[in-house]
Amino acid sequence: MSGWRLNSGGRLIDRARPLDFAFNGRPLQGWAGDTLASALMAQGVDVLARSFKYHRPRGIFAAGWEEPCAFVGLQAPRSEPNVLATTELLVEGLRASGQQGWPSWGLDPMAWADLLHRWLPAGFYYKAFKSPAWAWPFFEHALRQAAGLGRMPDTPTRQIGYERRFAHADVLVVGAGVAGLWAARALAEAGARVILADDGPQPGGRWLDRPAGSAVDDWIDETVRALDACPKVQRWSHTQVVAQHDHGLFVAIDRSRPGQERLWKLRVPHMLLASGQIERGLLFPDNDRPGIMLAGAVSSFLGRWAVAPGRRMVLATNNDAAWSAALQAHDAGLEVAVLADERARVDPWLLQQASERELRVQLGARVAGSRGRMRLRAVALRDSAGRTEWHNADLLAVSGGWSSALAVHAQAGGSSAYDPHLHGMVPQAGPAGIPIGAAAGYQDSAQALASARQGAEQVAQVLGLQLPPLPTPEVAKQAVGCSAIALSKQNPGRIFVDLASDVTADDVELAQREGYEAPEHLKRYTALGMGPDQGRTSGLNGALLMGHLRGMNAGELGPTRLRPPYTPLPFGAVAGIEPGELIRPVRRTPITAWHEGAGAVMYESGQNWRRPGYYPKPGESMAQAIARECLACREAVGLYDSSPLGKFEVTGPQSLQFLEYVYACRLADLQDGRGRYAVMLRDDGRIFDDGTVFRLAQDRWWITTTTGQAQAVHAWLEALLQLQFQGRLETFVTSVTDQWAALVVCGPRARELLAACGCSIDLSPASFPFMSQRNGTLAGQAVRLFRVSFTGELSYEIHLPSSDALALWHELVRVGQHLGLAVMGSEANHVLRVEKGFISVGHEVDGCINPFDLGLSWAVRMDKEAFVGKRSLQRDQAQPEGRAQLVGLLVPAGEPPLEEGAQILRGHQVMDPAAVRALEQASGGFVTASVWSPTLDRAVALALIEDGARRHGETVRVSAAANGGLHWRSAQVVAPVFFDPKGGLMRG
Amino acid sequence: MLQIPCPYCGLRSEHEFICTGEAGARPARPDALDDAAWADHLYHRDNPDVPVLEHWWHVHGCRAWLWVRRDPHTQEIVQASAGGQDA
């Protein structure tokens, strides 16, 4: 019970609006404007979390996004783990609890880890649990239970109110401290479009930490008014820039409505980085106790929320800037026991400030240790002569120096350098942005404003603008000295470098001894900087310590690479208003609604099409439905919606020349109204796609592609026309996939059905033979009829404008019911084509297969002068041995189908099912498609096996999964056609 | 996320494009190449750390195929031109 609320002050809180909330079930009260952390601190809550690895009690260490410890679980108003208490705005009814406590949060048996720390160094689990290898999964489960942060919410995210928006501007100013405000106003008044984004609730930056009422406050108010009056300015609070990507793309997150965040994507050519600095801690034993806090955070809690983080305070610092925390604490009524500075000499102005307040100052003194388990009780200070003195204190403000908050700059490759005066990283101006203010290394406000002017002028010059004269506030003197961070390790106790991941100085030394010396290796080996805080307060300390251990100068070893996002983003905000189904809109044929109404089980197929798989009747199983549909097609007539088929119209005087180049077959000999099955190859001779090519007229073609490849084929045809022929081949390719529907009528009574519907085309085989095309009307609709077959039956593919398709479908179903018609889904279509041995891209064609492998040499004319893939086929023909070739497989009658994808052994030796690893070497092929054939009343399969064409009659071993292991089934190799081998039915 | 200057549509986001990688001219007479030279054309790319010529298709725009010279180091788009004209 150390923290308390001051009676006055607090720039961000509204004392007229009390809010009730609860932490670990305990009812508490705060004010509007509080963060969860400030409200908890004001109510005297000391411990917010248990640490990641050792389960040590942890309190609040920082006041903003750099906080490494105070992660809590939120139960209301939303369910979310790992919420940062220092940035979560308090709302009425908020409920939060500590994470990492089991069975109850106060009693944490996992604290044994703290006592065993000697045996739990960095990387211990890699060493301790490595052998035997089989045991790792068990250890891993137990370790994950013990470590880790937070619990996943049980309910899905409420996807309401999230947004993703886009904005463009000339300049993005990141951070609305004095430097950011000055630059934004100067550029806006010069005429630039400016976005000023700040992650805090109100502008002012570090000035919000100080008591209100100075001249700078008036200047801030005036500047904000001027900015808000300027129509070219977008000023955002609660909005954090979290990423910079290539070509000036920035991502910002507006958190003003928690749980309904808005994601901004900004395209801005110029960025001014006014993001300020982040403080880091000191390295001494037991530096993680609740009550030990960054000096800047003490100022923040006092100035912003009027919360005193303790009653009796010690300040330990190595730099001038931190002194103001002690002065401010004293002025606010805290008892300041000692002001300890590691340096032997400091700015006399600071000493004068301290002596005016009669504060005890100890120069050349370091923290040697601390006491107090659930709250700090005492601090040991060691003076330069080596004498140690204990001071009672419940608050230790520490400051190990300041480093620029440069993530948004560094993500885009912006360089930075170690500043030997500031002892921190300072970014350098470049294409990734121009740092200004404290982010550029200027802690003194007058210098910060001067750098803001310089930065703004640089941007204005590129934009061709002139900066207007602007008022600049008078600021009091600020001292800015700092010394390098040093390790204080005379006393026992663990020195925590990274509080979030529980990485100690010993861990860093161990990493160095074991050769993980590079900062990136150090990070992976010890987890330093890998916590949810991304090492904001610890990364540089870790690198400096490693550099020291390696005998390098300070700053020679920089921190690890920073990657976006700067802070975690909710997935809901990334998804925006397009969650679930909306993120990938489905494509519907004109008939899709009918299929759904008819009770079809719908599949998603190639490029998000919704198409029917099968139409089960009441009481019918999947297998029964498929068998019924297949038999109806074989015995009467089937109707299939083939609309997703890729369709292109190719026109132009040189379209024949183009298509001859694209397809492997001959096309020049086709008469008008005739067509051909054709394969399209890639340059490497492998099959890319297949379909039919019909000649509508001398210079007019109608080609179909597979459903899944329609866009890839389109890209390829356009690439050839535009890049290779460079527009010299007068040919035009028009995608008409969506404009034309395709309905397939197939089966022995197909002709009868069309005639019964009323068809203007002479359907007699002599007049309208197989692989020809006619135009006419069917049931009153204008159609293009194609005699092609994918089922092996007499078959008509009806192409007609999509808008007319549903009416025709209704008519075909109505008339067909008297002829035994069944509507067929893609499952039946698959069974029928496997029976017939027709190939399907994606099954038999897997990117390694040429047409010869599939027995399609009749579809390749090697005597054509040139076509895509010919050169590679020449090589394949010269070396045909060992290629996978298409075969059929038969299992003994009555046995169930083989598994699609099952491996086929190269030899005949049956493998030990345990020797699964050897299977890779032993595999000589695989099952590409396997179905139960209702027509033949047995299981049939297609497969690709080595040299399969000359192995008909052999028996092969095929893998099958059983009881979590493997066993082997026998199958006979046969020709890849099981039904109507001569093709008389489809030609009839 | 790059911005590609399409000669027809202006500066457009990378979202609208498909990149098919390094642009190599397809040999005019593949028959004239031996197996090694043909394999080189099919499979070998230089992947240099200097501006490279690439093919980008403006699929969600004008559907023009572009020749784009991109510096993989800085991500700068040095030049972009449409189909016919080699950059």
Properties at a glance:
heterodimer, A: 988 residues, alpha+beta, FAD/NAD(P)-binding domain, Gyrase A, domain 2, six-stranded mixed β-sheet, six-stranded antiparallel β-sheet, 52 strands, B: mainly beta, four-stranded antiparallel β-sheet, two-stranded antiparallel sheet, globular
The chain-level structural class of chain B is: mainly beta
Number of separate strands of chain A: 52
The CATH architecture designation of the domain at 163-277 and 404-463 in chain A is 3-Layer(bba) Sandwich
Known CATH architecture of chain B: 2-Layer Sandwich
Helix content of chain B: 10-25%
CATH superfamily of chain B: Folate-binding superfamily
Low-confidence stretches of chain A: none
Distance between the termini of chain B: 22 Å
How is the main sheet of chain B built? 4 strands, antiparallel
The end-to-end span of chain A amounts to 94 Å
Could you characterize the architecture of this molecule?
The complex is a heterodimer of chains A (about 1000) and B (about 90). With about 1000 residues, chain A is α+β, with helices and mostly antiparallel strands. Among the domains of chain A are: about 165-275 and about 405-465, 3-Layer(bba) Sandwich (FAD/NAD(P)-binding domain), CATH 3.50.50; about 585-640 and about 740-820, 2-Layer Sandwich (Gyrase A, domain 2); about 645-735, 2-Layer Sandwich (Alpha-Beta Plaits), CATH 3.30.70; about 880-988, Elongation Factor Tu (Ef-tu), domain 3 (Beta Barrel). Chain A contains 25 helices and 52 strands. In chain A, α5 runs parallel beside α11. Chain A is elongated. Chain A starts with a strand and ends with a helix. The mean pLDDT of chain A is about 90. The mean pLDDT of chain B is about 90. In chain B, the strands form two sheets. Chain B has a four-stranded antiparallel sheet with strand order 3-4-5-6, with no helix packed on it. Chain B has one domain (about 1-25, about 45-85): Folate-binding superfamily (Folate-binding fold), CATH 3.30.2270. Chain B has one helix at about 35-45; strands at about 5, 10-15, 20, 50-55, 65-70, 75-80. The chains are: A alpha+beta (about 1000), B mainly beta (about 90). At the A-B interface, α19 and α23 of A face α1 of B.
